[in-house]
Amino acid sequence: MLKVNLHAHTWRCNHATGTEREYVEAAVKAGYEQFGFSDHAPYPFPKGYYSSFRMRIDQTEDYVNTLLALREEFGDRIDLKIGYEAEYYPAFFKDFLRLITSYPVDYLILGQHAIENEVTGKFSGHPSDDPAGLCRYVDEVCEGLDTGVFTYLAHPDIFFFTGPDRIYKKEYTRLIEHAMKLDIPLEINLLGLMEGRSYPDERFFKICGEMGAPVCIGCDAHHLENVCRPEVIQKAEDMVSRLKLKLVERPVIRPVIPV
Ligand SMILES: [Zn+2]
Ligand SMILES: [Zn+2]
To answer: Virtual CA dihedral for 50, 105, 65, 155, nearest 10 degrees?
Structure first.
């Protein structure tokens, strides 16, 4: 059973269900000691662009206030953390940090859902055999991690590279090396495992095992029933022992400081 999970969403991102309170109740029931909310972050995009899979900027205050009130109420039973899953979009990142740090925030996880950004770039999860795309994904993730504000890297292997294994290995090794240098855990994503997505990829975590990179487990819960799925957690734990992964059960929370 997991004691810590820092990856959970809420109804606010438009593709998840469940209120913050329902998640907290489910997390307490499942025996979590620490539970972090990391809903898809609000992002200050140019006027006219609407991002459908994240909370709106004007929902931020209520998200934070709701979590602060729950922390007050449930504080003796569970350690609640206020966070976001966010992309590193260089063009908007400074403004993004300014926005979220104007409210209390404990941590960020990096989920690089698009290359460049979703306005002018493209999504990273689609199958692609373009080595330059993978290279760019790795470059941007490394640059994002260098900002120092991310506690861990969610679904690090989201770029679905269908080209030669040799290139897969070369590029992803670069990412893993960089995360190791910064001591940032790489997430085994339980949602991907549960749905049979392209991630977590055995090839990626095999390299992690060989190199001794830190890994962690994240539920990526978008529905209440996924707060605790023992059979999926078991699969992740099997992966950890099979590939001799260095599991970080309690990732060190890095403070979010504007750059
Ligand atoms: Zn999501
Ligand atoms: Zn997520």
So the answer is: 50
Residue 207, strand partner residues:
none
Distance 242 CA to ligand 2 centre (A): 25
Summarised one tens digit per residue, pLDDT across range 126-155 is 999 999 999 999 999 999 999 999 999 999
- The answer to whether 17 touches 223, Cβ cutoff 8 Å, is yes
Question: CA 139: distance to chain centroid?
Answer: 17
Alpha carbon of 193 to ligand 1 centroid (Å): 14
Residue type, 133: G
Q: Which ligand sits closest to the CA of 84?
A: 2
Distance from residue 171's CA to the centre of ligand 2 (Å): 23
Class of domain 4-247: alpha beta
> Which structure tokens are listed for 187?
């997430």
Query: Are the beta carbons of 259 and 94 closer than 8 angstroms?
Result: yes
Q: What is the pLDDT of residues 63-90, one digit of tens each?
A: 999 999 999 999 999 999 999 999 999 9
Nearest 10 degrees: Cα torsion 156, 244, 129, 177: 60
Q: Judging by DSSP bridges, how do beta strands 122-123 and 114-115 pair with one another?
A: antiparallel
CA atoms within 13 A on the CB side of 232: 20
CA 22 to CA 200: how far, in whole Å?
27
What does the alpha-carbon distance between residue 193 and residue 232 come to, in Å, rounded to a whole number?
7
